Amino acid sequence: MNNVVIRSSGRYLPEKVISNDHFAQFLDTSDEWIQERTGIRERRFAGPDEKNSDMGTAAASQCLERAGLAADDVDLIICATVTGDRIFPATANFIQENLGNHSAWSFDVNAACGGFVYALSIAYGLLASGINKRALVIGSEKMTSILDFTDRATCVLFGDGAGALLLEAVDPADNPQGFGIKHFELGTDGSLAYKLWQPDGGSAHPPSPDSLLRHGHYVHMSGREVYTNAVRKMDQIVEDVIAKAGFTPEDIDWYVPHQANKRIIDSVRERLGMPEERFVLNIDRYGNTTSATIPIGIDELYTDNKLADGQKLVLMTFGAGFTWGSTYLEWGYPPAGGGAK
Ligand code: UT7
Hints:
Mean pLDDT: 96
CATH class: Alpha Beta
Number of helices: 11
Bound molecules: oxa(dethia)-CoA
Helix content: 25-40%
């Protein structure tokens, strides 16, 4: 089995900043409510001509640039998204085309907020087994394309953006410090699928004038139920993945949680007994970018120079589906010559 290490990261956030006050102009809401109940101050909205694949391409290009690699050095591209450019083909294929890559196979993962951790686990398996050598794993969302701007309970929560990681298969003999991705905890509960979903637009209810009238092609959420399940499940999968790795919460340098609600993150953090400084937060600036929150968070750690070789990271997420996942990894890229040839 190969080791699987992270070689570089990237992110893209649209320029347009939308404050909470923006929503108070046309909805019965306030900056105070949104900040207090969610931790969100502002979010980014993509422009009308800015596609999901454009954002994913920007994040992926940054990964390649930072690694000093060409597009064709990658043989796998996975995009986690629920707001792809088209229902088919996969947004990952448009990203492949934009990058000018001709050597990868590519596909999307549809697991909402669980998407990035799911995609990471798939890439891990393909690289560890030797099927692929180098992967771009992208989380990219244009949530504004499926938001109901008449529903104050959902539209204030989400934002647009993309993040990406470049993973590489490494021979364990070339990785004496043992850097890389180590463990996952993953799960799904389809019985609660309708608690957070986009009811129309697929083959069960294809787009129609009727679906437009009932706002069926937008995000619908039973917020409270999602909230309680998110706290319960994230508590469990974080503890489980840390135990699997043989550590205690205190041993973990960085926690990178999905950013759905600061109160959910605080609750998990307090249960672990960890200070705020160990938790990556970007919900205040970007809102919930669904599958992009975790790679954006990792990239922020990277560009803020907060990551050191050997540091222990735990990623955790919960979202629509319901889907959930946690990952334990040790940051670092082995010395030259260690990576995929
Ligand atoms: O990333 C995918 C996973 N998503 C999540 O994990 C989201 C989980 N859910 C949540 O984060 C929270 O449930 C919300 C932020 C969505 C809502 O917060 P809450 O404290 O659970 O509020 P609630 O749904 O219980 O609603 C309380 C009140 C209601 O009014 P009434 O019925 O008590 O009069 C809502 O209508 O707050 C009202 N409300 C708002 N008020 C002002 C809901 N949204 C807003 C709003 N502004 N934007």
